[in-house]
Amino acid sequence: MTNLSELLELIAAWFRSLNLPEPIVHWGHPLMMGIVIFVMGSYVGYAGWRSRLAQDKEVAAKSRVEHRKLAPFMFLFLALGYTGGILSLVMHRHPILESPHFWTGSIALILLATNGILSLSGFWGNKTALRMVHAYLGTVTLGLLVIHTVLGVQLGLSL
């Protein structure tokens, strides 16, 4: 059976042929994803919690709108970055499935997708318990993304 790296090697070879500067190939993914995780992610989390905890109904409503607008884009950017990260591993000829960074990224995307499904479902009848699960699952996922970042920096320094 062909492994994942072999399936992606043709694409990686094309990117290698572009002769991009090594710092961009090596640190481009971490820089872009760091921005998504720490700037966008922290704001999405903040807006989500502010929408739950704000005493002022206007502030809560505005925060809920901001959270709803930005969270899907955050997921999209992380999903695109995930594919770029996998391609980066292939370009560096690093085994994908042996990377803890790959696994934390995969789990984070699954958790964010689960949270998105909860939200898109309308919390199955606006159930308070599911809204709470959504809030805490999002927070846990942001924490996992911090661990993911640490593992990514360690990986980047080892390549």
In short:
This protein is an all-alpha fold and about 160 residues long. It has six helices and no strands.
Describe this structure in words.
The protein has 159 residues and is an all-alpha fold. It is 87% helix and 0% strand. It is built from six helices and no strands.
Overall pLDDT confidence: 94
Total E-strand runs:
0
Shape: elongated
- For the terminal residues, how far apart are their CA atoms? 26 Å
Give the low-pLDDT segments: none
- Largest sheet, strands/sense/barrel: none
Order of helices and strands: HHHHHH
List keywords for this structure.
159 residues, mainly alpha
Structural topology:
Layout: H1 4-17, H2 22-53, H3 57-91, H4 100-120, H5 122-126, H6 128-158
